[in-house]
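Hi everyone,

Forwarding the result from last night's run.
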Amino acid sequence: MRVRTPWIEALRKKEEGIDPTRKSSTPATPSDRDLTPKRMADSYHRVVIPLAQDPWLLDNYLNASGHVRLGTIFMDLDALSGVIAYKHTGEYVTTVTAAVDRITINHPLKELCDLELSGQVTFATGRSSMEISIQVAKAPKEGSSVQKEDVLMTCAFTMVSLDPNTKKPVAICPVKIETDEEKRLFALGEKNYNAKKARAKTGLTKQTPNDEESDLIHAMWLRQLEYHDPNNPLRKPPNTHYMSSTTLHSSQIMQPQYRNRHNFMIFGGYLLKTTFELAFCCAAAFSHSRPTFLSLDPSTFENPVPVGSVLYLKATVAYTEAPTTDDEHHPEHSSATTTRVQIRIDSKVRDIEHGSATKPTGQFNYTFAVEGDIGVMPQTYEEFMIWVDARRRARRVRGSIDGGDGAQEGERGGGEERRKDDGRAVRVTE
């Protein structure tokens, strides 16, 4: 159960001075607690959502067209990751979602059926963070196991354990590896961990765009000059849209019904649901078609969202894998029938009185497939950086799908990679 205390009771305790959100210099986590390595199986947890058996439960999961709402599933995934994390760490710590490393559709759900959500801690070295791997599958019949073709969705969450009083990271039990499969899962988690550290060092806030990226930016800038040159017959094609025209905004008060188990902060799964649905709307408005979700790409939670605060969300079409510059990069020369669109959601929070500074709460990156050939073009330097960041993310994803490591930021791209920049060789889903 995600919430343990009724809101009115939690509010009363806070008014009496019992405020779990207040920092203290006295640690609450016992210094002598047992940190013996734990098996992956110790944290394994499985839950079945009986959608095919309970029509009223199904009612909470369906959208207007009768399909399962992915945003609601995302809430369940985050809740399950919390259950798994606490099975590994115990109750002495506060565990929060630090990042969603990826959510991928393996096989589209084409029928209403019972769903099985299962996962375990697959990477933990004894520091404060852990990686949790989860899958969503068609629930198998009793006595049977999940088949590969029945796995609908896979994802990985990074959770961090904090001291409940000081709010500082605390050590947790490392994972004990016992089988070849567990060795493979641990190695994959270690690879993801090292890749995130490397990306942090080569991000656009640390380094300038590389040579290939600079060439692409310059090519787009020159193309825009041609669009506005009265002596040049070339004009912006109707299927290319400036990034500034693609944005959608939303704002809402954070209500206690979506709080986490610590009562005064909003549940991370609700933020996933909310940002996903805004991203879906942004992709639909951009393409004038119904988007097909492909993946949630690496996304981060930066600051907690308090109950009663105002959450501001901004959705932007950050990148399209339809050509957007010269020759084969330009929409005029493409014959594709679908375009992969990356939507970036920037989230910020502020208190209801608007007396405090606005804090960033996270960035979420969703990829959809939409009908037709459509492209986005940045104009300002900030938009070019958003475009470059999204392009790097798309290349990493494409590389991981191909079975490689994907392109790393800061690499000097070659001509062959540039010719492949439309990204149409790989489809994530049918």
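The chain is about 30% helix and 25% strand.

Cheers,
N.
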